[in-house]
Amino acid sequence: MTTLDLTPAPGAAPFPRMVLAQAGAEVRAILRNGEQLMLTLIIPVLLLVGFSLAPLVDVGGSRIDFVAPGVLALAIMSTAFTGQAIATGFERRYGVLKRLGATPLSRPGLMLAKTAAVVAVELLQVVVIVAVALALGWHPHGSPLGALLLVLLGTAAFSGLGLLMAGTLRAEATLAAANLVYLVLLGLGGVIFPLSKFPPGMRSVLELLPISALTGGLRAVLASGAAVPVGAVGVLAAWAVLGLGLASRFFRWE
């Protein structure tokens, strides 16, 4: 006669399953948050439509070819930097990170889940923005792999900066600073206003910003069909190393 063994066997789920489950929760939280949904989808689409159809800025060519890559870069920044900084800052304030860090998921697993959630939301953004841009007459050129490389480097750069801000400032300060940086980079990062409109001395400084490098790189690849600019790759890689390095060093979980 076979004996049924009812002995409890507690244990954590496999690591990949835990990461995917947490990533799914992170994505749902982002899409349910009205402010983050505004940042990630609504504002970029409105900017894309408005600046593509209305002759508000002289870009010296096709407006949709100029605006679409810039809006893609803005969408990456809104998710990887602004949205992540604000959400993580308040999770830290309310003790969510401390409690999650004590679960079987572990802190590295939590960071992987957050990264996966950012990439998933960015994929949704790219699909929506590209669909709207194509409907407005955009005809992208160049290598999709080159554009993907720039997007990944931009994601790493902005994620590092967002986590650094969220892990060192109070939640209220992070909220204010992240939104302020978003608006400043929107105006000075070449997203909707060509950097050529700025004085040469100021332009050389603005070109070192991560949003300028991402915008300029995507524009070179998708609008001009050029190879991936080495300068843009270098700037984004430098910001990624700096931001992620400082975040890993100074991030406070409580």
Describe this structure in words.
The longest helix has 31 residues, at 63-93. This protein has helices at 15-32, 34-53, 63-93, 96-101, 107-135, 144-168, 171-188, 200-206, 210-222, 230-250. The protein has one domain. 74% of the residues lie in helices and 0% in strands. The chain is mainly α and 254 residues long. It is elongated.
Main attributes of the structure:
254 residues; mainly alpha; single chain
Note the gap between the termini.
55 Å
Low-confidence stretches: none
* Helix share bin: over 70%
Q: What is the overall silhouette? A: elongated
Write down the domain tally. 1
| Multimer state | single chain
SSE ordering: HHHHHHHHHH
Layout of strands and helices, then pairs:
Elements: H1 15-32, H2 34-53, H3 63-93, H4 96-101, H5 107-135, H6 144-168, H7 171-188, H8 200-206, H9 210-222, H10 230-250
Helix pairs in contact: 1-5, 2-3, 2-5, 3-5, 3-6, 3-7, 3-9, 6-9, 6-10, 9-10
Describe what is shown at a glance.
With 254 residues, this protein is mainly α.
